[in-house]
Specification:
This protein is α/β, with parallel strands linked by helices. Helix 7 crosses helix 8, helix 7 packs parallel to helix 13 and helix 9 packs across helix 10.
């Protein structure tokens, strides 16, 4: 059986769709998956079982990337097409059955997926390689607790100020002496945030994963105790890795994109999302200043997230 997956290019939406892919793999264990996806999110599927190939597509002017997808997928007859981008191309490729998902802003993204596919899509799954698992077993100490910190994001208005992250990690270290910090994000985010996040910390208390692959990052998350970060793809990667997750929200919609899991929490600005939705957002400044580091520490203590 040949299954074509037309994936979102966004890391967060791709992570949230892994529960759908996991269900199809279980239903059709002999299937072969072809996945069409952008370069940033493609890493999510590198170690997925039943993978035939990943077709990486970069966005082009005048939507010419869709013509490239058509050329690479046309000369196949697909048993199933799963289209997370609600594209027209799924109607013109040869297929027996298709699922074309179109997201909205009425309910949580996972609830939308579950409603459309008619099964529980909350069982998110990130697959890791043996090499990745061996690495974390080598580098992580069993008597330490690891906190994953994500100071970046793809949109300046939703990024909590880096000096607040720095105040937070130093305050946590004073309360919990046995913790270490894993800093995650892209290579560009490393240049923008890393040095300022770790000021005041001992270098032995820091693991820098910025610029590393998403699946390796997930492998470290699976052995960590807590994630703290902005609303981002890596926040969803944390929840998918079954890590205690604190997501920071301001001008993005936690109704749609809050982290989902047994110990997943949202701390948002004093301003509601609705109040932001009627503002003219300045793309060059943060709107996250009303979140105080003490709110996060209080949540950690009250929920016993590091006990």
């Amino acid at each position: 059986m040949k299954i074509l997956v037309i994936s979102s290019n966004l890391i967060g939406d791709t992570v949230l769709s892994t529960g759908v892919i996991e269900d199809f793999i279980k239903k059709y264990p002999n299937s072969k998956l072809t996945i069409v996806i952008g370069p940033s999110a493609a890493q999510i599927y590198e170690h997925v079982p039943n993978l035939d190939k990943i077709i990486i597509i970069k966005k082009k002017k005048f939507n010419l990337h869709w013509f490239e997808i058509y050329k690479k997928c046309f000369f196949n007859k697909w048993d199933i097409i799963i289209d997370f981008r609600s594209s027209l191309i799924s109607y013109i490729l040869f297929h027996k059955k298709k699922f074309i998902f179109k997201k909205n802003d009425q309910s949580h993204h996972l609830n939308q997926l579950s409603f459309y596919f008619n099964f529980n899509c909350n069982n998110l799954k990130i697959y890791n390689s043996d090499k990745e698992n061996n690495e974390i077993n080598t580098y992580l100490e069993k008597n330490k607790k690891y906190i994953v910190i994500c100071p970046g994001g793809n949109w300046k208005p939703k990024i909590w100020p880096v000096e607040n992250f720095n105040l937070l990690v130093n305050s946590i270290k004073k309360i919990y002496s046995n913790v270490k910090f894993i800093i995650v994000g892209s290579k560009l985010e490393e240049e923008n945030y890393f040095i300022n996040v770790i000021k005041g910390l001992d270098k032995d208390d820091i693991i820098n994963l910025m610029g590393k692959s998403l699946t390796l990052t997930s492998a470290y998350m699976k052995k960590s105790t807590l994630f703290i970060g902005n609303d981002s793809g890596l926040m969803h990667l944390s929840a998918a890795s079954k890590l205690n997750t604190i997501g920071l929200f301001g001008p993005t919609n936690d109704k749609i994109y809050s982290p989902i899991g047994e110990n997943c929490f949202v701390i948002r600005t004093k301003e509601s999302y609705d109040s932001f939705s009627i503002k003219n957002i300045d793309q060059n400044i943060t709107y996250m200043n009303s979140i105080d580091s003490n709110q996060i520490i209080d949540l950690i203590i009250n929920k016993k997230l590091l006990d």
